[in-house]
User: Which sequence fits this backbone?
């Protein structure tokens, strides 16, 4: 089944976006609420393919948790031609809050701090993001075009760098060179890496959350490499970078069911556990190209009870589609790695797509919404 039979995208005009307006990580005079500017809703009303969602993150901690801090990821302001954040607002009674960015990847968050419980009441914070998104489809069968989106040389260098859990030397480089031996252009090498990752990984349901993205540990297993999306797509990114191809993870969350017939590749309503890491690579003449080998493995494992063989038509359709396209039922927070949480005093986290928190009792479990005390919901409004 051809990927383009599964995904037909309408052309649309670009959307203008206002300044990000992000405060420094240690902004003076923090307040209990705030907003960030975004694109105007009128900018997308007459453009085809856009859908608008309101995402709400609610945190409730017991009074005894104070003093406490939480860090809530904020959706990316503008990503390519497929995502625009229209508005961001937050409120946390009795807390000090501030918008912050950290690292070299424009990782946006709201930092909330309660020095004490307000009048003995529970500690509450609410963050709302209104986001416009649409499907992506890059025609990989077309010849490279001089009119394709171009990325700056500085940005491409950034997405060739190693990270703590994704080195580009040693076993990672050795593996990348074996996969791409004899291939002389980025597109062909990236295709080979994608197919290799699909063939040599397996989604493991017992892995918590989205995994950790420790690619060296995966490669040292010596067999089929199990994991979740941050592991499998992180492996694709690390191998691509080691082969000299700019690549990046995109950390986000699913916000709607799939309109393409994939039960495993969507979530609506309560999306507290719907986080998903996607990936993409850059090729001159095409721009940034979607790649999601992890979701191929998710379809194989979870589309029907008991799973599907890799030869099944639905798995083959996902495999074809997810190199070059992805469905616009998912929102990206950032492309960041080794993210320092301002004011935490702890080591950087590998990535930020879950709420993080610290209380008087210690670090909260980001992967357990109920135990942590957060809920994320999504509603389509346009």
Assistant:
């Amino acid at each position: 089944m051809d990927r383009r039979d599964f995904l037909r995208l309408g052309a649309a005009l670009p959307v203008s976006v206002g300044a990000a307006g992000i405060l420094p990580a240690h902004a003076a005079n923090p307040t209990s609420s705030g907003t960030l500017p975004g694109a105007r809703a009128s900018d997308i009303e007459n453009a085809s393919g856009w859908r608008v969602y309101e995402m709400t993150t609610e945190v409730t901690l017991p009074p005894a948790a104070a003093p406490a801090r939480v860090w809530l990821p904020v959706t990316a302001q503008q990503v390519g031609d497929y995502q625009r954040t229209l508005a961001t607002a937050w409120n946390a009674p009795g807390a000090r809050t501030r918008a912050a960015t950290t690292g070299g990847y424009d990782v946006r968050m709201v930092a909330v701090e309660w020095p004490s419980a307000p009048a003995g009441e529970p500690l509450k914070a609410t963050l709302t993001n209104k986001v416009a998104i649409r499907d992506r489809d890059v025609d990989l069968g077309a010849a490279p075009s001089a009119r394709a989106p171009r990325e700056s040389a500085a940005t491409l260098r950034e997405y060739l760098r190693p990270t703590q859990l994704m080195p580009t030397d040693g076993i990672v480089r050795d593996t990348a060179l074996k996969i791409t031996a004899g291939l002389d252009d980025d597109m062909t090498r990236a295709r080979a890496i994608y197919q290799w990752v699909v063939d040599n990984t397996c989604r493991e349901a017992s892995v918590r959350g989205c995994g950790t993205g420790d690619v060296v540990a995966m490669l040292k297993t010596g067999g089929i490499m199990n994991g979740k999306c941050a592991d499998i797509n992180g492996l694709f990114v690390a191998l691509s970078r080691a082969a000299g191809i700019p690549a990046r993870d995109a950390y986000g969350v699913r916000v709607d069911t799939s309109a393409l017939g994939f039960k495993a590749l969507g979530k609506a309503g309560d999306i507290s556990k719907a986080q998903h890491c996607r990936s993409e690579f850059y090729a001159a003449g095409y721009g940034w190209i979607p790649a999601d080998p992890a979701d191929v493995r998710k379809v194989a494992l979870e589309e029907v009870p008991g799973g599907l063989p890799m030869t099944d038509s639905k798995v083959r359709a996902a495999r074809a589609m997810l190199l070059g396209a992805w469905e616009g039922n998912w929102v990206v927070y950032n492309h960041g790695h080794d993210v320092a949480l301002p004011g935490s005093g702890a080591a950087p986290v590998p990535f930020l797509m879950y709420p993080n928190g610290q209380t008087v009792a210690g670090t909260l479990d980001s992967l357990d919404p109920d135990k942590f005390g957060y809920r994320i919901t999504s509603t389509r409004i346009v």
